[in-house]
## 1
Amino acid sequence: MHKEKYLIQFQKNEITEYYVYKKLASFSKNKTNKNVLIKIADDELKHYYYFKKYTNKELRPNIFKVWWYTFLSFLFGLTFALNAMEKGEESAQKKYKEFVGKVPEINKIINDENVHEKELLSLIDEEKINYISSMVLGLNDALVELTGTLAGLTFAFQNSRMVALSGIITGIAASLSMSASEYLSQKADKNSQNPLKAAIYTGIAYVLTVIFLVIPYLVFSKPIISLSFLIINAIVVILLFSYFVSVVQEKTFKQYFLEMFLISFGVMIVSFIIGIIAKRLFNIEI
């Protein structure tokens, strides 16, 4: 790619990040967070105008990225959205280094980006990020247990409404049990911040996953169709979950997704078999 095209790409990235930080700052209710985001946004805008001196072009931001990271902020929290954006821009930052000595002040821009990632973003104060492990616990457990349970009940009952009712009852009971276990676990941990909040985050993550997995059985009357959409929903949850963990814990997305996929669908297959055996063994027709 020609040097000018790279500079245009850099300029596009900077104006896009400016609008992302600016929009996130406008939604932030925490004064410290807002000030941090405004400071970073101002730096990104300076970088944009710096590259503009070389390209002589007025560029617009990537609107999709602006709204995408804003959406991630609402869904998973501010810290997650910022980490995801920084991770997505790693290749661009590496490309900056190739222009050291070729473009004046590029070292300052590289330094600013490092400061944003290592210092300013570390100042972000957010409650959600302190309870990531609790949310992960609830979501992960609900995913593994409910996919298997609903799949087994599908073959045992052959009735979508019955499966949905059983799934909801099982899910709510399991979420309460999981929340109680998380509360006791955090209570025993001297480093735990707030056992009650940890339990609440675990329970909410569990219940939301249960609802998402049960919905097909409330919408479709034919069990096999419901099961098909259960599989799709489970894959969506695994994708989101794997993406979340890969960003927060800096793990490889593909490896974690494959691991979760094999575990969840392994449990589902075993539950299929158990459901068929149970139906034939007890000669149940519903």
## 2
Amino acid sequence: RYDAFISSSWDDNLLVQPVIELLEEKHGFRCCIHNRDFHPGERILDQIGAAIDQSRRTVCFISPSFIDSMYCEYELKYAMEEDIRQGKKRLLVIMLQPITRFDPSNPVVKQYISSRVYLDINDPVF
């Protein structure tokens, strides 16, 4: 149904919106974005799972605000588990800002960035 599910914090909308516009308008991709495509009155966790399941890729834009969001954490964790379960690599992580702190009770982001490849927009290659 979707080419990509976009996972980002509300606080990062100004950084993420141009990427969404580029994907949809210039390249014709269909993106699922929570503030546009989720339905009011339905359980948010069910909608997250369905959106990830119905998307070819999940793109997570990581930032300190992302780490502070329990919904963003759930989206990342769900996408990671689906990759493992299906034996596919559908998850793409883009680091918007350096992450300098981790909550020991929330190791999901730390686990991902310490064991997998991710894009860092602060890298001079960009």
